[in-house]
Amino acid sequence: MNIILLGAPGAGKGTQARILVEERGMIQLSTGDMLRAAQTSGTEMGKKVAAIMDAGQLVTDEIVIGLIAEQLDADHGEQTGGFIFDGFPRTLAQADALEALLAEKGQGLDAVIELRVDDDALVDRITGRFTCGDCGEVYHDRTKPTKVPGVCDVCGSTNLKRRADDNEASLRQRLMEYYKKTAPLIGYYHAKGKLRVVDGLQDMRAVTADVAKALSG
Ligand code: ADP
Ligand code: ADP
Ligand code: ZN
Questions:
Q1: Residue pair 189/112 in contact by the 8 Å Cβ criterion
Q2: Contact at 8 Å (CB) between 58 and 177?
Q3: What would the mean pLDDT of 2-18 be, rounded to a whole number?
Q4: 0.85 cut: is pTM over it?
Q5: Catalytic residue selected from 36, 90, 125, 196
Q6: Is 13 a catalytic site residue?
Q7: Could you give the dihedral angle defined by the CA atoms of residues 84, 87, 91 and 94, in that order, rounded to the nearest 10 degrees?
Q8: Which atom of ligand 2 sits closest to the CA of residue 204?
Q9: In this model, does residue 78 exceed pLDDT 80?
Q10: Which of 10, 56, 78, 109 could pair covalently with 170 via S-S, beta carbons 3.0-4.6 A apart?
């Protein structure tokens, strides 16, 4: 099964993707994570996108489509539950490219889950977010703190990080980009009969339950 998680920055895409990986052996393809990894490892591409990402703008379609194409061809070992596209596609051009890449492999999309949240909730979600730099677990100061302050519950690492773009000014810009370039995908996938809307304002477990329902229905 191949699915897309669609939603504004902070809607809960990464959080739900990790649960699907854990529970169903799916493969999470997050273009945001891939771009941040390129920055950390200091590649030319990483350097090129850093300023764009900090400003909350979208990087070019060409770059993210290239990253996804690479991952679709990669060996993902024992994980065979299908792909979760997290934060991709974000433009109609990316959506078309994804369909073509999957078709080349004789595959398609099974569902597009929109995690719907109010903009008002996003400032709190984004400014409270931190992640484990070692295992990628996603935390929140208030809604999902670590059990021991400063220590990752999952892997015990103390390498907890906040993103440079997780501030209110960058969020405003990211939201603009979302409404201008990404929100049109909601209508697009609805017309294709693929869209399932889930209320992303519920607590994490209720969202997970509704995602499971959306995938079975
Ligand atoms: P969030 O978790 O806030 O939704 P992501 O981690 O998915 O953010 O993305 C962070 C940044 O990486 C985006 O603001 C954008 O600059 C860049 N980015 C990620 N995915 C894409 C994409 N599919 N197309 C263009 N830019 C992207
Ligand atoms: P996205 O990948 O869509 O940008 P994340 O999964 O990173 O979103 O979630 C953004 C922040 O909100 C994180 O700090 C996460 O712990 C928190 N969060 C995610 N889902 C919920 C939820 N249903 N209720 C409360 N907080 C949540
Ligand atoms: Zn960890």
A1: yes
A2: yes
A3: 98
A4: yes
A5: 90
A6: yes
A7: -40
A8: 23
A9: no
A10: 56
C-alpha–C-alpha distance, residues 164 and 170, integer Å: 9
Number of CB atoms found within 10 A of residue 196's CB: 18
Annotated catalytic residue 163? yes
Burial of residue 202 (number of CB atoms within 10 Å: 0-12, 13-18, 19+) = middle
In sequence order, the β-bridge partners of residue 217 are none
Per-residue tokens: 74: 């990669």
Q: Length of the chain in residues, anyone? A: 217
pLDDT of residue 79: 74
Q: Calculate the average pLDDT of the chain.
A: 96
Tell me if residue 90 is catalytic: yes
Report the nearest atom of ligand 2 relative to the CA of 5: 3
**142 in Cβ contact with 124 (< 8 Å):** yes
Per-residue pLDDT tens over the stretch 192-208: 999 999 999 999 999 99
